[in-house]
Batch of 2 targets.
Target 1
Amino acid sequence: MAQHTATYSKIISPEEYNRIMTNEHLYIAVADKVIKDFVEKEVCGKTNPEVIEIGCGPARITPLFLQIPNIHLTAIDYDLDFIDHAKKVLKPYNSRVKVVNADVSTYVHSKSIDIFYSQGFHHHVQKGKVTERYLKNIYNQLKDGGAYVLGDENPAAYSNLEDRLLKLIIWYSHIISNAKKLGFNYLAQEEAKTFLDDLYENYDDEAVKSKEQIDLILSWVDKIDEASSEKIDKATFLAENLLEILRKKRNIKEVGDTTVDLSRGDYKISDTEFRKEIENIGFKVEKVERVGPSKDIGGLYIYLLRK
Ligand SMILES: C[S@@+](CC[C@H](N)C(=O)[O-])C[C@H]1O[C@@H](n2cnc3c(N)ncnc32)[C@H](O)[C@@H]1O
């Protein structure tokens, strides 16, 4: 298992992160707006609702939520460099938002909360007890009837852990191939690295990414994505082949560059598995919207979770 520490900013700079995620990713900006719509509907009619953004990173989406009148916002992340950048981005809104460097699993707010929201955060929290601890912490601080609006990337449903890896290949191939087609080569490369992190998380503790593996993924994604839009079985067959080659090229030697050696700790799960996680805490899925191609390929899911 990769170490889950606050090192995201050692993998990508805050500026580059904000730029590629908002301007280049095929679905993220659309999903951001859906999250905002969900939050806006929730706060409607409430005076000064207490809202917390968890895993805010370098405040990529925070200004969007400050467009909502009256919200009393706090943004939290445990990565100090990202938080420093967030403070700079949010300086013009100083009176309306508080930026806090804290771990979401243990953070305790001074008041009870109307709404928590997060985007692309949930899959970074270590599975099992740590995820449970963070969800319970959120749940306990919500007012009765309060909501957690959560946006995250979900691959298609899988039948077992090996099948999960194939579904991951199909999902990432879609994202990476489209980034390449649009000429966003840096995004394509970062997504290929993220895919490798996801492949090893909870599966292979020692393995680290290599340039050869990244290049291999970049050279396979187009045919896999093309196949997945025609016939999912064909895409699955290609994914099996790619997985086999990647396993043969397993690497345990770091390259000496934190942007490659460190893992983002991604572990993306299907809609089905996600529901089990949150229902176990007591949340109820009240609403869900998918941004993305299809259930067979995956998508960005936005959930309204009710306490
Ligand atoms: C992919 S980034 C998402 C940033 C932002 N939400 C966005 O949509 O651009 C995930 C963020 O979660 C933060 N994070 C992960 N685990 C955390 C934890 N336990 N407490 C606080 N922040 C955490 C990371 O530092 C990182 O900035």
Target 2
Amino acid sequence: MARILAITNQKGGVGKTTTSINLAASIAAAGRRVLLIDVDPQGNASSGLGLPRAALGDGPTVYDVLAGRLSLAEAARPTEVANLFVVPSTPDLAGAEIELATEARREHRLTDAIAHAGAEFDYIAIDTPPSLGLLTLNALVAADGVLVPMQCEYYALEGLSHLLATIERVKAHLNPRLLLEGIVLCMHDPRQNLTLQVEGEVKRHFGDKVFETVIPRNVRLGEAPSFGKPIILYDVASRGSQSYLALAREFLARSEALSAVATGASASADDGDSDGARSKEPA
Ligand SMILES: Nc1ncnc2c1ncn2[C@@H]1O[C@H](COP(=O)(O)OP(=O)(O)O)[C@@H](O)[C@H]1O
Ligand SMILES: [Mg+2]
């Protein structure tokens, strides 16, 4: 089954969509099959992957999936990156949030859809809106892990504790599997004192949950979406691109080490020694 990652922070403009697009593209470039589901009515992940609203016409979107009209596989579209697929969204999705509010299994719509298509992908990433409403809740209920992009700003830690409380509530009532996958520092600028100060505090609180790879502020990352391309296709040599490729390597090493532990017991009975040797090689 696919490993499912919600990319969430209720604050806007912190790097959720940029991270969704570029981490998903970098994981796909590493040869894994990846589906990015856009559940933000702003549709920035869709347009950033070359599917602006005008290009979508009356074609399928995530709205059809949440309403139960189409399966994920029917709504998924290929992108310019091999192995990367996207279920796009449009502003109509804001209406879905209201319609769903009175429906049965309203928090489980995305979970139900993934249950039927999850085996076709290695990873499913979900880009969420800047709120903790029903759309984000659907993502948290469907996910195995939450990846939190954050900017090193003054109020960042307060926002983070609110998000963690929400994750705990979802875990207690709706999705016991959910865990904090990690925190990614985005638009990182080490020349600013505040950045270093907030980074220090986040690391003190969250230890190794904070990814070692930081994403620098990089103009090329800001430009790429207007060309409808992930950074690896727009300017692969840029610092932004290299940092998302590094983040993907770090993410895959962590994530695949976790699943090796989960399946390791049975494998070691067959060829424990050679498995152990292989697992020490860098990914
Ligand atoms: N590392 C970065 N360097 C430069 N600009 C960035 C970077 N990350 C994001 N941006 C820009 O900042 C804005 C907000 O980022 P975005 O990923 O859309 O945040 P969110 O999805 O959390 O609202 C966008 O215009 C985006 O292009
Ligand atoms: Mg966004």
